[in-house]
Recover the amino acids of this structure.
């Protein structure tokens, strides 16, 4: 004997399938370290902090690249996975956690995610061959 589906089970399975939304984004230029995103100075006796020129230039280029890839918007909580090219245009050692912030900011600015505070899980790792890309980013909706 087979069990009957409820109306809700039928809708979930056939009418409103819950597809996992995800996006893969390729960036050709390594983001600046989080240590260099802002510069501070004193103006009228107060400390003022502004985006560094290098960061502003990188973010504009990254947002343009993201938008050119026609990435759909990810709504709600998401998982972020970042793979960065080891020794990109430099033999200088970098900390992998310093690439997370600029990438998260670029995803928000490009409209891929609503806000980087919605990231439920973030992973970042180095890779030795990303076939000419500086960073490969995967964004996936959390269920």
């Amino acid at each position: 004997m087979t069990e009957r589906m409820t109306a809700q089970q039928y809708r979930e399975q056939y009418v409103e399938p819950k597809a996992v939304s995800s996006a893969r984004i390729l960036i050709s230029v390594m983001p600046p370290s989080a240590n260099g995103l802002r510069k501070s100075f004193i103006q009228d006796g107060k400390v003022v902090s502004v985006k560094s020129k290098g960061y502003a230039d990188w973010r504009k280029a990254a947002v343009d690249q993201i938008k050119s890839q026609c990435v759909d918007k990810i709504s709600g909580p998401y998982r972020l996975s970042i793979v960065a090219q080891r020794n990109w245009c430099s033999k200088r050692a970098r900390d992998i956690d310093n690439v997370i912030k600029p990438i998260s900011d670029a995803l928000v600015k490009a409209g891929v995610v609503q806000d980087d505070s919605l990231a439920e899980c973030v992973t970042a790792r180095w890779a030795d061959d990303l076939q000419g890309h500086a960073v490969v980013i995967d964004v996936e909706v959390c269920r």
Remarks:
- The longest helix spans residues 53-68.
- Residues 24 and 138 are 5 Å apart (CA to CA).
- Residues 16-20 have pLDDT under 50 and may be disordered.
- The beta strands are 22-27, 38-43, 46-51, 78-85, 119-127, 135-141.
